[in-house]
Amino acid sequence: MSIIEVSHLSFGYPEGPRFAASRKTGTQVEVLRDLSFEVMPGTFLVIAGPNGTGKTTLLNLLCGSLVPKSGSIRIDAAAIESYSTEALAGKVAVVRQEFVPVFGFSVIEMVLMARTPYYGQMGFESKADRQIVNEALKATDTAQFASRTLASLSGGERQRVFIARALAQNTAILLLDEPTSFLDLKHQVGIYDLLKRMQLEKGKTIVAVTHDINLAAQYADVTLLLAADSSYQYGRARDVFSPEQIEKVFGVRVFSGKVGQEKFFIPLGKFAKDSRQINGDSDISLPK
Amino acid sequence: MKELLTARKLVVRVTLALVVLVIVMFVCSLMGTESVSLKAVFGGAGGQEAVNPDYEILVRVRLPRIILACIVGAALACSGVIFQALLRNPLADPYILGISSGAGLGAIIAVLSGLNWMLWGRSPIAVFAFAGALGTVWLVWFIGRLTGKSHVTGLLLAGVVVNAFFSAVIMFLISVAKGQQVYATIFWLMGNMTEEDFLVLWLGAGCVAAGMLALFYISPQLNAISFGEDDARSMGVNTARTRTIAFAVAALITAVAVSLSGLIGFVGLVVPHGVRLVFGPDHRQLLPLSGIVGAIFLVAADTLARIIVAPAQLPVGVVTAIVGGPFFLVLLIKHTHKVGWLGK
Predict the structure, then answer these.
(1) A-chain residues within 8 Å CB-CB of B7?
(2) ipTM
(3) Which one of 1.10.10.10, 3.40.50.300, 3.50.50.60, 3.40.250.10 gives the CATH number of domain A37-68+83-245?
(4) pTM of this prediction?
(5) Contact A103 B276 (CB under 8 A)
């Protein structure tokens, strides 16, 4: 039984200024067309693809922020529109790109907000809520700066706090929008390790949008590769990513090799030092 | 680990703040050009023939004015908190969405058309100002919605532009008006506490108290919404409902305050920041404490306005800015590390 079931999903944004004729005729800038896939519980899915192919749009559809133009989304065997805001937040948690909030909330105050729908009559959290929040802080290794403000943290630390907040929602599904885009190598790997641990230990279903196809290949069980012409590939990373496929979808030439079972890719532009040596799939072996 | 806010802590702090408010009200009621003897006051209102002057001054002159300052201060501070949270903008104040210019326009139209009827003991200026305030907020809200449901920038820009436009209309009307009318309008625009009828006071107090209760009820949701509506929604907060209640209540209590006392600046911007700097940004605490501190601040400021240049009186807005400004800057410098948008 799949936990996320997307069938024949299409979505477009209205075109032109408000009140323009194009709005009335329903002309839309289409971003997703006839997309179908299923995700089994406890799977790590990575959504990849060039800018503007609808990765973030798909994430917003999966968390109910946007409503499909046609097609359907089922979360845990029920249509997504049958959930109330509150009920859906009990199934799906979202980690958007990290930012510094306007007001100086502390880390623990912010993570506690994930429990808002469960607050008592007086508007305060219960002991159980505190327990859940403490676990989320521990899991993300953020308990050490629980009382600091978000502004005082580094980007990587802040991203972990946003993940902690999503974990505190206690959901089966975790959606993440480019969780590592502003992080250095160590923190990128750190975030993916954390997500993998959540998948393996807690059985969470992870759906992450990313530009990093190498990390995707190493961590994902399944990959959804969206292309600019609204076509898509869905399957195991090693089947979806090939030098030809990447060149076709992203429009760049890549140098590829293998680590264990998974391929890795290094994009090389026209003026890159070693770009003359690329000859498709070069099978190099890495030093041990 | 940082001590988290609990229901008990909140009750204790709010009670303490209320005690301070009552003390300030009491002390301020004794201050003024005429010294009042408490002993004489408790003698009662006096009989038909023997008027008790101490009682008259305290209960019929000073007390209504102090209660009015409480209502207006609490309303402005609370609505400042709300607009800052909803617009996610630390520069927001109760007047940011055009309430001030709308009320001003209503007031000047009332003055210029020379109306002199009364409604529940209120002059047409107040009634027109109230209508102008609510009408303008509705207009700004309507324009803001056209730019997108949850884009606060569109709403803010609409507010700023409508404010500028109506201010220009006010300036135009003032320049074509006659001397006496100009004086009445400018006096109103500066913001003033005048002695009021008790019925009006209770009506205003009821509105503001009910509004504050409603806002307190949605304060956990306001915490989430101050992170952005998408974020709040994915945490399970019904953002549309929260936003609508918050906007409507904040606009209503601001309109009540404005129609009671004219435009008093500074309270709605600075009191929320001051409370936030000292007690943190949690709206469950920020709202009630800002309301009470706003009341304390305006009662004190109005008392100063009464006595500094006695027997003349200063517009209370002058005092709020002159006294409140430096005080706030000291707080800001001392607690900068707590402010989200200023970093560490």
Answers:
(1) 122, 124
(2) 0.85
(3) 3.40.50.300
(4) 0.88
(5) yes
